[in-house]
Amino acid sequence: MPAASLARRVVAAAAVALALLATGCQSLDDAGRAIGRSQLINDLAGRLDAALASTYAAEYQLAGGATASIVQTQQPAPRAAYIYPAGLLTVTGEATAECDTGGERPVCTLTPPPAQAGKPPVTTFTSAKDRGLVTPPMVIGLLTSAALDPTTTTEETDSTIAGRHATCVEVRPGSAEDGQAPFKTCVTSDGVLGSFTGTVDDTPVDLALVRYRDSVESSVFELPADALVVDRRDDTD
Asked: Quick one: DSSP state of residue 67?
């Protein structure tokens, strides 16, 4: 495990323990359980983060019968594509392209590529989430928030999803005041998002992995041939 990743997990676990003990009414056993919970959550977040540097194509079943896909590769350079109902998001070294494919003609808006190759900020995925696809970076954010909340409770289970072993965690925040909603997610042993059920920013999301391949087609990163392209990479506002 990379030293930086291990350090982040230790710091997160320690923060949870200190938050419990600072009240003066929690025992060391309580702190120990909190650290164990934090380690589980951070382990799943770490798997997802490490898999962002992998090459694979994953297809998901969404609520209502629609499908979505997450495709990423590292050769010849990091690239990712997120395909969801009436939409497409591609992330390459040249641009982040968000396409609305629900009209008569696709419209794709280009913005600058992310500062860290292949890893766009979570806000980039708003349209995908609104249409039923929650992405690994979004789940990483939810898990990280849960790990730092000492009131959160979790339940761990094992599952097999699309023929792949997965670790699942059900996360229940202790208070709804912080806006965090309960959710359940499963992550495969190799770090692929296996499933997610919950509410994200008031949007219900329910998806499950149905097909996985460790090879990808380069054409998936191309914009639709007939798309109207709006290039905003040079905008300064």
From this structure: E
Each residue's pLDDT tens digit in the chain (237 positions)? 443 443 344 334 444 433 433 444 444 344 444 455 688 899 999 999 999 999 999 999 999 899 999 999 998 889 999 999 999 999 999 999 999 999 999 999 999 998 876 677 788 899 999 999 999 999 999 999 888 888 889 999 999 999 999 999 999 987 655 567 899 999 999 999 999 999 998 899 999 999 999 999 999 999 999 999 999 998 755
80 & 179 share domain: no
φ/ψ of residue 110, rounded to 5: -100, 130
Residues of the domain holding 160: 3-53+136-213
59 inside domain: no
* Number of compact structural domains in the chain: 2
Token pair belonging to 126: 């708003």
202 in the same domain as 144:
yes
Count Cβ atoms below 10 Å from residue 8 Cβ, excluding itself: 17
Same domain, 174 and 140: yes
Q: Is 237 within a domain?
A: no
- The whole-model pTM stands at 0.81
How many CB atoms lie under 10 A from the CB of residue 64? 8
Cα(56)–Cα(67) distance, rounded to whole angstroms? 17
